[in-house]
């Protein structure tokens, strides 16, 4: 064997030796991380069960709560009835009105049209809707409808503030976004959102105007002993006062998990559009949850943990959907009864407390995982 052959053999041997060592380290790291993750998951499950079960008991909560991390169910519970009259029990296939949680679907549809080059979120609304041709409304942009800074009032035709200056929550603004979607796509809002459901793998979701399925959860006011069914559900959600783009989507616990996964894993929007959706573009002082950042049809925590969420309320149906990107954890809280005499703060107490629980656990497990990795790193 000549010198060149020996040299080549030496390099080859060294390379395979290094690769083998690298593979061993990678395998050890993977095993360590799997052990850490499984330990943390057991810890989360125990905490969630103790604390959220307590919320169910304290408020006699009628509804569904589910926490999913990647594909692992950390917590799921349904308690109470789809209908208090028929005493039909809730389960994971129950279809709820999700109210203003619907707004993020409309925001995504707008951004999809932007991805297709059909519009720009910086465009003036007057480019698409003739009612915006007058001087007072002419400068309002699509972006300002998306983040509720257009100044448009849900009641009357005047502006509450100069466009782009102040946050004023507006269902009307999202109804108008639905009209823009129809105009630029050449298809109805229902057709557009149905295609979006398909992309996200949502098989049990629909709009209030197109629902033809089963397992629809009735909405009630009052309490479990003294209740009144909300009439004309779900058709009433398609009325102009609410509208499907602002609050008329119907969905299930599992479908909303699928939505969170598809949306935040980049399966629906281009990276730049997803960033635009989730970036802060307004401030909101929520009457129940306090100060928060607002993007396009989505709210965000001001501090830790990083969380994207939105509340929803139509008569008799309070809801809350949350996503924690750092741990890829999705939280769904749906209910179908509201004691309106006690006010919205009381109605949303269970949702608020569950969010406080999941926020706190998120912060704990993120710090815990970092510490466990640090302490198990080889010297």
Oligomer: single chain
- CA gyration radius, whole angstroms: 24 Å
Shape: globular
- Which spans of ≥5 residues are poorly predicted at pLDDT below 50? 3-12
Task: Give, in order, the helices and strands.
Answer: HEEEEEHHHHEEEHEHHEEEEEEEHH
What labels would you give this structure?
alpha+beta; globular; 16 strands; three-stranded antiparallel β-sheet; eight-stranded antiparallel β-sheet; 379 residues
Describe the protein's architecture and organization.
This protein has 379 residues and is of the alpha+beta class. It is built from ten helices and 16 strands. The chain has helices spanning 3-59, 103-115, 142-146, 171-185, 189-200, 244-247, 253-264, 271-278, 344-347, 349-376, and strands at 63-69, 72-79, 81-83, 88-89, 96-97, 206-207, 220-222, 227-229, 249-251, 282-286, 290-294, 299-300, 308-314, 317-324, 329-335, 337-338. The strands form four sheets. It has an eight-stranded antiparallel β-sheet with strand order 2-1-15-14-13-12-11-10, with helices on both faces. Strands 5-9-6 form a three-stranded antiparallel β-sheet. A three-stranded mixed β-sheet has the order 8-7-16, with no helix packed on it. A hairpin with a 4-residue loop joins strand 3 and strand 4. Helix 1 (3-59) runs antiparallel to helix 10 (349-376) and helix 2 (103-115) packs parallel to helix 4. The longest helix has 57 residues, at 3-59. It is globular and about 70 Å long.
List the helices and strands and how they pair.
Layout: H1 3-59, E1 63-69, E2 72-79, E3 81-83, E4 88-89, E5 96-97, H2 103-115, H3 142-146, H4 171-185, H5 189-200, E6 206-207, E7 220-222, E8 227-229, H6 244-247, E9 249-251, H7 253-264, H8 271-278, E10 282-286, E11 290-294, E12 299-300, E13 308-314, E14 317-324, E15 329-335, E16 337-338, H9 344-347, H10 349-376
Parallel strand pairs: 7-16
Antiparallel strand pairs: 1-2, 1-15, 3-4, 5-9, 6-9, 7-8, 10-11, 11-12, 12-13, 13-14, 14-15
């Amino acid at each position: 064997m000549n010198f060149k052959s020996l040299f080549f053999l030496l390099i080859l041997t060294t390379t395979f030796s290094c690769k083998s060592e690298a593979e061993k380290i990678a395998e050890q790291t993977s095993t360590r991380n799997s052990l850490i993750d499984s330990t943390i998951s057991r810890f989360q499950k125990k905490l969630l069960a103790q604390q959220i079960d307590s919320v169910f008991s304290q408020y006699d909560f009628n509804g569904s709560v589910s926490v999913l991390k990647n594909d692992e169910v950390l917590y799921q519970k349904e308690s109470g009835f789809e209908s208090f009259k028929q005493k039909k029990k809730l389960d994971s296939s129950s279809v709820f009105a999700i109210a203003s949680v619907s707004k993020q679907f409309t925001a995504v549809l707008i951004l999809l049209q932007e991805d297709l080059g059909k519009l720009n979120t910086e465009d003036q609304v007057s480019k698409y809707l003739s009612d915006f041709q007058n001087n007072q409304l002419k400068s309002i942009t699509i972006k300002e409808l998306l983040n509720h800074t257009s100044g448009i009032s849900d009641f009357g035709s005047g502006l509450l503030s100069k466009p782009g200056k102040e946050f004023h929550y507006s269902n009307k603004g999202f109804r108008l976004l639905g009209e823009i979607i129809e105009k630029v796509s050449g298809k109805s809002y229902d057709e557009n959102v149905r295609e979006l459901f398909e992309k996200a793998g949502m098989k049990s979701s629909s709009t209030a105007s197109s629902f033809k399925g089963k397992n629809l959860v009735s909405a009630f006011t009052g309490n479990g002993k003294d209740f009144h069914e909300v009439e004309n559900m779900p058709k009433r959600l398609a009325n102009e006062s609410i509208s499907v783009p602002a609050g008329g989507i119907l969905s299930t616990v599992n479908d909303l998990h699928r939505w969170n996964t598809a949306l935040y894993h980049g399966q629906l929007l281009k990276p730049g559009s997803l960033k635009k959706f989730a970036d802060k573009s307004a401030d909101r002082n929520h009457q129940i949850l306090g100060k928060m950042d607002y993007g396009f049809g989505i709210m965000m925590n001001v501090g830790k943990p990083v969380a994207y969420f939105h509340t929803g309320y139509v008569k008799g149906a309070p809801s809350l959907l949350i996503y924690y990107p750092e741990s890829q954890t999705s939280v769904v809280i749906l209910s179908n009864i509201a004691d309106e005499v006690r006010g919205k703060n009381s109605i949303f107490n269970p949702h608020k407390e569950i969010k406080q629980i999941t926020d706190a656990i998120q912060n704990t497990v993120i710090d815990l995982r970092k510490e466990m990795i640090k302490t198990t790193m080889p010297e």
